[in-house]
Amino acid sequence: MSAECREPGPGGNSGASGSGACPPRSTSAPWRLPRWRAGAAAAVLCYVNLLNYMNWFIVAGMLLDIQNFFQIRDSNAGLLQTVFICCLMLSAPVFGYLGDRHSRKATLSIGILLWSGAGLASSFISPQYSWLFFLSRGVVGIGSASYSTIAPTVLGDLFVRDQRTRVLATFYIFIPVGSGLGYVLGSAVLQLTGNWRWGFRVMPCLEAVALILLIALVPDPPRGAAEKQEEAVGTPRSSWCEDVRYLGRNWSFVWSTLGVTAIAFVTGALGFWAPKFLFEARVVHGLQPPCLQDPCNSQDSLIFGLLTVVTGIIGVVLGAEASRRYKKVNPRAEPLICACSLLTAAPCLYLALVLAPVTLLASYVFLALGELLLSCNWAVVADILLISGTLRAGRPDSYLQSFLSLQQSFLCCAFVIALGGGCFLLTALRLERDQALARQPGTGTPDSKDTERRALLSGTGVAAENP
């Protein structure tokens, strides 16, 4: 490409001299967006992220009533999250591939329509068709995958450096806040109406507003727009397999992904089953009777939801601020902070579980500490109830044994989160080397520098400084 075809100079005149015209669209001028418009787009994406995670956990806030309505035991109720996470896991790479090559705005809109429509339809399912309710949760997972995969990349292309760090930190805050408000909305609607179905009928109203705002205010920026990179038309794009092979050789990305997977396992298990666990703990302590018919007491869902909101906000802010300050003296700050927080969260979660049959107050305190330490990294949901079902087999069919089975199945979370901390320590060992490799021109697959930046950014769970 010749120098005559560069962007216009400061005075608006072409830098080319002579009569030859540049080929049309051989390069694009820097993409710009007014500051207020970028801020409005970020606010809309944060709002939709709030609704996204409310949809993830609204079921957990009404789980006892849903189980009673469809006559679902604990082992089968776990399939609700299994179906959800499997559909999300399988569809996320597909949406990532499509979002990198087609309109991200259109993909986000389709995702909102999917999860909103599936949630509304699930509120009209009769008890004899419980399998349709499971299927609807799978469709919600597919819709959520599109948003969780693509929305952070749009924000990354609207802001630069410190601005991007602050905006992404705000975006991440709405993950625990949305999760907590999912419990709160589910339990509040249940108390007001006496029917869990209305929780799924309120959400589509909020999501319709989100869709309108997304279409009206969120642009579809070119990839790398924030850095004002030029995009040559016809630039060869790497295939999905080439992208995977390249990222597979990036060990800091691999280890940080394994660390986030451990976080997902634990937060998913706690998010879905903690309200039920706390409810059963209160029954074991004789503070309330078992729930045998609708509506159930949703006090624990409300408390756990508020706890998640508060610890989530504090945790994300503390994590981002610690990363910003520590990164000035240590380039490995982000994975080290993640590792320390996870290794500290492990004993807190363990104590919260083993103390539940003895004292609920201490259990809540350690649970709050564990959630605060986990809150810097909120990701996909995982399920562990098959472990609980195995433990319960052969035991007397009593409420106490049900509680103990759930408690002991939760204990593996403490060990998994410790393994996640170890993965982030391994990330710290490779991070500087992989970042230096990403800065070298001509390395990796086409567009690999942008892929590397986004991968490291999403993998560590803390907004990374752009290379």
Rounded to the nearest angstrom, the distance between the terminal CA atoms is: 25 Å
Beta content comes to under 5%
Biggest sheet record: none
User: Which ranges are low-confidence, i.e. pLDDT below 50, for 5 or more consecutive residues?
Assistant: 1-28, 229-235, 378-386, 388-392, 443-467
Short synopsis of the structure:
This protein is mainly α. 71% of the residues lie in helices and 0% in strands.
Model description:
About 70% of the residues lie in helices and about 0% in strands. Helix 1 packs antiparallel against helix 7 and helix 3 packs parallel to helix 5. The two termini are about 25 Å apart.
Question: Main attributes?
Answer:
16 helices; 0% strand; disordered C terminus; mainly alpha; 467 residues
